[in-house]
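name: query_chain
kind: protein
chains: 1
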Amino acid sequence: MGAIYAEPSRQLKNIWLEWITLHRCLQRNCPDVSSPFFSAMGATSCRKRVMLVGKATREEWGASSYRGNAKPGIQAIRERLYLNRDFIEKGGTSSGFWAFFFRLAAFGPGVDGMIWSNVAKLASNTGRPPRGRLLREQADLAQRTLREEVREYRPSLVVFVTENYAERIITNAFGFTKQGWKKDRNGTPDDEVWWLCSTPDFPSVRFLWLRHPQGKTTEQIQYWTVKAKELLFEK
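structure:
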């Protein structure tokens, strides 16, 4: 028997419906835009949750849910939501992103919920993170979605593995600038991490901003893991 999940809130569903509408609008002039990505949480009864946020999902992801107008938006959302949850619980892939994801998931006891999200929810079928017009067209909706995801999933720690990608979206979403973050200078330049203990709107959430883990050394990943654990469990 599969896992039983709570339905997303109306607010998050409405935002996801906006992504479906935006996708269909952009397809008219940009046919290679991939179908929208929806975040997912692998477990629902958690004491501490970690939300890992990447740049964008490469290429199509469960595109059959969105081809044409054959399926109502809510049905498409439900199919994608279950697809993403199953992907988390089956272990993701062998990429650096997912290896780091499950490093964070192994922080227990006390951590039994991992959330997967991306800054950009619409990518390009070229396999590269969206930039230029495609990124600008989704910027406002991406900001509102990130905020609603944090409200919905209630993570204790949000980890961005994006380097400087879409910095304006991230900083506008939570009302801070990167210059205001504390910068850890104890490691090498490639080890640099930025963190902010909380924001006025999300006082119980810790934020951590890193480079992308793909291709990084074991020592770098371990350094980041230690920093994430410190923020997650600090008093």
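note: Residues 10-233 form a domain with the Uracil-DNA Glycosylase, subunit E fold (CATH 3.40.470).
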